[in-house]
Amino acid sequence: MCGIGGIINRKSFSAKADPKIVFKKHLENRGPDNFSFYEDNHIFLAHARLKIIDLSDKANQPMHSVSGNFSIVFNGEIYNYKEIAHQLKGQNNYTSDTRVILEAIEEWGIEKTLSKLKGMFAFCAIDLINKKTYLARDRFGQKPLYYTECNTGEFIFSSDIRAITELKKKDLTLNYQSIEYYLSELTMPQPNTIWNEVKQLEPAHYMVTDLDGNIKSVKQYWDLKEVLNTEVDENKAVVKIEKKLTSAIFQRTLSDVPVACFLSGGVDSGLIVSILATTSKERIKTFTLGFNFEHEYNELSQAKLIAEKYNTDHTEVIIDINIKEDIEHILAQFGEPFADSSAIPSYYITKEMKKHASVAISGDGGDELFGGYIDYGYANDAESLANRVKRPAARQIVAVYSKLMSRIFRSVKNIGSEIEYLKITDPYKLNRNMGFDPINNKYSILKTEAAKKYYNKRWNQYQDKSFTTRLMKSSLKTRLLNDYLVKVDRASMANSLEVRSPFMDHELAELAFSISNKLKFKNNQSKYLLKKLGQKYMYKDIFEQKKKGFGIPVKDWLKTDLYEFSKQHITNLVQRKNVVNKNALELLEEHKEGTAIHTHRIWALICLEIWFKNNL
After folding, report:
1. Position 226 in a domain
2. Confidence at residue 525, expressed as pLDDT on a 0 to 100 scale
3. Average pLDDT in the 70-94 region?
4. Which of 279, 385, 446, 572, CA to CA, is 20 to 30 A from 353?
């Protein structure tokens, strides 16, 4: 795992700042073990290395091909690089996944190479003979890749947006549509960023530029296509998932440095630890986050059950959060406004894990692939109702009857809310209802409806007949891409810890979306198939376990320890007169008095003001 950066059309570079100093400054947490660069009249490449595979200096980057015709800077891990190496002509004893990518591109070209890669990555490869570059990003967007086409002629890219911001600050302008989306969803809407002039390359895409910094083409090399749900046998489905998940887990243990596992009380990380521990020859390291105060999200007891069952080398990370002291440092790692408060505990646990290992395995992605979120199950219930009762008028009759029966017999489900759900415009089902209303936001000065437009864009990228399936697929490019993967990457890389996610295996994703939703949500259970598998490895009552979030008690702190802190930051934001109006101050008072809960909205305003203060 590393950090990369570069300038194409070096001769036109106009910033006064030295790119060697700027890139090292912003990439060194991602790669503290080595910083190197390459430059000529056209190209500047920078690489900060975190040594994971092939610890020798010969694996340092920028790296040049054996022929000398190609160069590369690469961030990520390719889990099947040894298999690919044996398919290449000539030498196949390559000890570095970077070397394998580089030689594969020269031998096969970019598209064939990308089709073979299993892993998470962002890279820039230079074809010195044909005078063009290839920039590529992994299938789910686990690794960031920012870029800008400057009006001065050069093309700049980086793993960290802060490097671009520092180099080209005078040429950048705020993207208020991104800010509007942020107010609704707490994150930036990739591929857009906080700056109009800076973008991220979309997941599963590659870009070609010439050496004058001009973008020649951008192409998609993979996506989840619509697949007929032919799998109807529950046991066969579970066996297939177990086989594919086990393979993905063991691929992600490939390392020349110690590997550890996150372990919460949930099914995703629990399955990973259980499967790994069952067949591992060595005692595996596991880590669970806890707090030294009473908190509903503590999962120490559930995690301990699994740790004891498999005799893991278990560490409970008990933290006392000094949030007012640490928040600015933690939020600075994101380079853009980011208001998912679970970034705070993510930072703390990865900081502790780094003391014991340089690689960690997480359960991220299990919810998206197998239906773990409440709104997925809710969508499936509503869709099932719609398929049974076609006419809207008939649904209203059913709703009245259901409401009556639920009052008489409390065990009968009231389906009125499902009928109301069906009335929501399909793309708007992507709204998580956490931030501000993207259409009727009385607190905002901005009126772009950016979130609504973004939902439409992502929803329309898929054509599945099932709107539950479309919701889950679209979520891969909304909540997962913009929030959860960003949180994990920035929090962990701030501590020089590489996080790998077996559920983010594209073959496992293809399998998951080939399985009928009837099985995924069987017996009205979220993640039914993973829980079924979990009964084999974990505990029999797993279907009784309620899903917990991964967070901190911000809701209570905003009424007490963070009240004055919040009031000052919201006041400062209002005074900027370009984002929110004075009504925003009402949110904090209503929250404190308990007449409404505005946790995420208030937190979003605080984080936005902190970003403004430090960047404008």
Report:
1. no
2. 92
3. 91
4. 279
Q: How confident is the model at residue 153 (pLDDT cuts 50, 70, 90)?
A: confident
CB 554 within 8 A of CB 599: yes
Nearest-angstrom CA–CA distance, 379 and 229: 18
Could you tell me if 294 and 398 lie in one domain?
A: no
158-189 pLDDT tens trace: 999 999 999 999 999 999 999 999 999 999 99
Could you give the angle at which helices 323-332 and 343-353 cross, rounded to 10 degrees? Answer: 80
Q: Which residue has the tokens 């004075």?
A: 582
- Residues 262-279 as b or e (16 or more Cβ within 10 Å = b): bbbbbbbbbbbbbbbbee
Check if the beta carbon of residue 315 is closer than 8 Å to that of residue 289. Answer: no
Give the separation between CA 612 and CA 570, rounded to whole angstroms: 12
Percentages (nearest 5) of helix, strand, coil residues in the chain = 45, 15, 40
Residue in the block written with tokens 């029999």:
540
State the burial class of residue 394 (Cβ atoms within 10 Å of its Cβ: 0-12, 13-18, 19+).
Answer: exposed
Tokens standing for residue 131 = 């005078």
Residue whose entry in the numeric block shows the structure tokens 């649904």: 395
Co-location of 575 and 536 in the same domain: no
Using a pLDDT cut of 90, give the percent of the chain over it: 75
The DSSP secondary structure of 582-596, one letter per residue, reads: TTHHHHHHHHHHTSS
In a domain, 498, yes or no: yes
What's the rounded mean pLDDT across residues 133-155? Answer: 93
Average pLDDT, the chain: 91
Q: Is 539 a domain residue? A: yes
With 90 as the cut, is the pLDDT of residue 529 above it? yes
Q: Distance between CA 75 and CA 606 in Å, rounded?
A: 32
Scan for tokens 């089709």, then name that residue: 115
